[in-house]
Write a structure and sequence with these properties.
Layout lengths: L2 H4 L23 H27 L4 H23 L2 H27 L20 H18 L1
C-alpha cells in the first residue's frame, strides 16, 4: 500500500499536501514499539486462545472466550497503527479505551470472584501473568494516539 493510498481517509484539514509525506505517522518512532508490542500480544493471545479451545473449551469457556476477544482487539489496534490516517487513529483510540476497560473489568472480576475464572485470561489480575503490560499498553497507546492528533 502506498503512502498516498494509506492517507486518503484523512480529512482535508489534516491531510498532507499532494506529493508530500504527512508530518506524523502512527507507526513511526515510539509508535513502532507500540506496533511491535501489539503484534506480539495479538499472536500471544490468539495462540493461547486456540490452544485453550482445543484442549478443552468446556473447562473455562468465559476465560477462553475473553482471550479470543483480547486477540481480536490487539489485532485491530495493530492493523490501525500500521495503516495510519485519521480514521485509523480514531478507531485505534476507541479500541485502546475498550481494551483498558476490559482489562480493568476483567482484572477486578478475577480478584473479586476467582471461581468465575478457573483458568486465567490475558487480562486476569490486570495482566499480572504478562507483567502488567495489558494494563500499561492501552494507556501508552492512548497517549501516543492523542499526540498523533496534535502533530
Amino acid at each position: 500500500m502506498s503512502d498516498t493510498d494509506r492517507h486518503q481517509d484523512q480529512s482535508p484539514a489534516t491531510a498532507a499536501a499532494p506529493g508530500t509525506k504527512p508530518s506524523f505517522e502512527l507507526g513511526t518512532g515510539p509508535g513502532r514499539v507500540l506496533v511491535w508490542f501489539y503484534g506480539v500480544f495479538t499472536v500471544a493471545a490468539a495462540s493461547r486462545s486456540v490452544v485453550e479451545v482445543i484442549r478443552g473449551f468446556d473447562r473455562a469457556p468465559l476465560a477462553y472466550s475473553l482471550s479470543a476477544v483480547a486477540a481480536v482487539v490487539y489485532g485491530f489496534i495493530t492493523y490501525s497503527l500500521v495503516r495510519g490516517g485519521e480514521k485509523a487513529r480514531r478507531a485505534a483510540l476507541v479500541c485502546c479505551a475498550a481494551e483498558l476497560l476490559g482489562v480493568l473489568v476483567v482484572g477486578a472480576w478475577t480478584l473479586a470472584e476467582p471461581s468465575a475464572f478457573p483458568d486465567s485470561t490475558v487480562w486476569s489480575d490486570f495482566g499480572m501473568g504478562y507483567l502488567f503490560i495489558p494494563v500499561i499498553l492501552p494507556v501508552t497507546g492512548m497517549v501516543w494516539l492523542r499526540r498523533a492528533k496534535r502533530a
